[in-house]
Amino acid sequence: MGSKGAVPRGTELDAGCRVRARKKTSRSWTKSKEVKFLSALADSCNVKFAARKASVSTSAIYERRKNNASFRAGWKTALREGYAKLELILLERALVGTEKVIERRDGSIERMREYSNSLAVALLRLHRDEVAEPDIEPTSPQGVNEREVDEIRQRIARKLERLNRQLTGKSRGGADGEQGADS
User: Would you say 70 and 87 are in contact if contact means Cβ atoms under 8 Å apart?
Assistant: First the structure.
């Protein structure tokens, strides 16, 4: 039988528990290939394109995603970045339009801006929920109302001051019967 210690990197156990060396091939994963794939995926949101850029087959990509949690997380992050970029591009096209060049029969050229109604409607649908609810109070990124937080902090500070006065009064031997308006 094989050794019972840790298996050195670049080796694997076969069915008989023998340690054998694995050859590195052009199909082997490297950090460089992973970075190239995730970068291309973030730029394109297209798995086939990104796989070609990283010189890896799409089946190997999906197999790695299935078996490697950190790669799976990187994949999700790359897609989020890619879709955010895509949304910005589409938003710019909806707001600024795209240039359309029209060549007339007399040979003159006219340039005009074309605005896509279907693109604008799609973007409105995407953000309908955010826009539908009125933003009454300013909130932090976590959705916490900043004014409420400030009010709570002020009430806590007043209570701590009152407690501190009571404690310092008792330690001096005097019992202040002082009570603030917050009690």
Answer: no
The average pLDDT across 3-10 equals: 54
- Residue 17 is encoded by which pair of tokens? 């528990």
Domain residue limits, the chain: 26-94, 138-172
**Which contiguous run of DSSP H or E holds residue 91?**
helix 69-96
Task: Copy the structure tokens of residue 22.
Answer: 């694995």
Task: Give the distance, in angstroms, between the CA of residue 62 and the centroid of all CA atoms in the same chain.
Answer: 21
| Tally of residues, the chain | 183
Q: Which of 31, 30, 41 is nearest to 77 (CA)?
A: 41
Residue 84 has pLDDT above 50, yes or no: yes
CA–CA distance, 43 with 49 (Å, rounded to integer): 10
Question: Do residues 70 and 35 lie in contact, with contact meaning Cβ atoms separated by under 8 Å?
Answer: no
